[in-house]
Amino acid sequence: MPKLNIKSGRIELVHGAGGRATQQLIQELFLPYFDNEELSQQQDAATLNLPAGRVVMTNDAHVVNPLFFPGGDIGCLSIHGTINDLAMQGAIPNALAVSFVLEEGLALKDLQRVVKSMSEATNDAGASIVTGDTKVVEHGNADGMYITVTGIGVADPRYELSGKRAQAGDVVLLSGTLGDHGIAVLSQREGLSFKTDLQSDTQSLNDLVQVLLKAAPDLCCLRDPTRGGVATTLNEWASQSKTGIVINENALPIKQTVLGACELLGLDPLYIANEGKLLAICPPNQAEACLNAMHAHPKGQEAAIIGELQTDPHNFVVLNTHFGGQRII
Amino acid sequence: MPKLNIKSGRIELVHGAGGRATQQLIQELFLPYFDNEELSQQQDAATLNLPAGRVVMTNDAHVVNPLFFPGGDIGCLSIHGTINDLAMQGAIPNALAVSFVLEEGLALKDLQRVVKSMSEATNDAGASIVTGDTKVVEHGNADGMYITVTGIGVADPRYELSGKRAQAGDVVLLSGTLGDHGIAVLSQREGLSFKTDLQSDTQSLNDLVQVLLKAAPDLCCLRDPTRGGVATTLNEWASQSKTGIVINENALPIKQTVLGACELLGLDPLYIANEGKLLAICPPNQAEACLNAMHAHPKGQEAAIIGELQTDPHNFVVLNTHFGGQRII
Known about the structure:
2 copies of one chain form a homodimer.
Chain A lengths: L19 H15 L2 H4 L5 E3 L5 E9 L5 E2 L2 E2 H14 L3 E13 L4 H17 L3 E10 L7 E11 L15 E4 L5 H7 L19 H10 L5 E3 L5 H13 L2 E5 L7 H10 L13 E4 L1 H12 L8 E7 L6 E4 L5 E3 L1
Parallel strand pairs in A: 5-6, 10-13
Antiparallel strand pairs in A: 2-7, 3-4, 5-7, 8-11, 8-12, 9-11, 10-12, 13-14
């Protein structure tokens, strides 16, 4: 069997059939990047070596068009997404399981580029890809590829992060500018008439979270506002904490290019996806410490206090606008 | 917001956008079937309550056409597949993470049927679905739906099942008839000219495995021969154990309808997928006990000893045919 031609070869249905071609794809394209003791056993299941603590599990399916965008690609994005869901529970990421649905005809060099990007993102977060699966569907039945990443992490049982712990008077912080990811991806879609040099903010936040938990040990909750954006996370928290949340538009960190693109496209930046930012609620007496810890970290330089919780039987999220008005978001 | 019309409604792109429509899909279609303490927390990650032991993790992506086939559907199949990968490591299934990629236009009643089937399969295996994710792709970009299931289980550390432990003289057992799943699914594809009353064998094998580990505690290894069939598993074991394996065609349990369909379609039943059978290798002195334990279990009634391992520097898998010949598989 000749070696895979990664430079000009393409995915064929046989690569998903479980036989020799699947083995070859694993050996020549996946293992060089994902290699570790567990995966090299090549069992259908991996044994984990977990430290003591509260074990946390999460998963995310990723479907992105285009696969490559300014600042990232579906590969690192899928790893960051799962790492961040673990981190928002205070967990230190440990083991990842990866599954690919590949479209027949996908260029092997594109797959390699994605796999390399996943490998780097996994190593950066101190995690390992311990098991995986690959299926191939007929041409036309997937946007190049879909990736699902499931993660296991271990949290210090002292931290119990939940929107239910938040109460009126608590403070809402955002770790950086909002909307960068969603607008960077949109700017690459065919048929859209704007160009920007905007980059996606896709990144892992597990290191930032560990710093925040030390600086503000009574943090109530953390969340990365991905799909649905900041507004959706705040509404979920308002409902969980049975409070209202008031946000100040003047305080929102946002890039001019994102604002401009949102105006052009008629979008509300509060609903645009972020992939490398976090929202936090913390008691007022630790808000300053939390903000300072964000500012001292490379991933939180543009952090801001954006609002606070208030008593409200309707659990509304209200925006104080630039113009002195209010609107429910 | 009116309730979902499950009878005649369809999946729309907004169901995957992370906002209110996604929440409604979760509340009205997923939670009624998947409800448990973990999932009802509706965090992005779930905290697991694992018993002591060796923690095992596995995942599988499922792409099946058609979604519904005689004897099962993509829902129970996706659960059985992951449960079985855990079981083959001797693990007792605990927590599952489920991710859906849904195609715009999918009938909600089909999704409900799949979700119900997943729920039943999960309960049967004594596991829980603790976290999940749903994405929606444009019409034409998925075969109805793709499902990835990742599972965590806990194994008694005394059992270390691996093909590396097998050696010449050990015995190969198969828990029942081969090829039922692959042929049952093929029979439903458009354009194929045969009809059968064959059912897929899709089922969880975790209960059978626990019985076998008691009856034959020195079992070397277990595997469910899914994609790639019995032949692929045997070749992987030959390579891992650095032996040859000889199989007797006369001993293979196989249904007449499967044999007939394979002849008609020019397929080798040894390469057809199974979704509810297991292969085992065990030392000769425990083979009889292992076979008896299979026969005494409802999922192993047609089990058979099908061959044995032998010294072979080429690590070939050889079939002794009905006609007294031999062929390498």
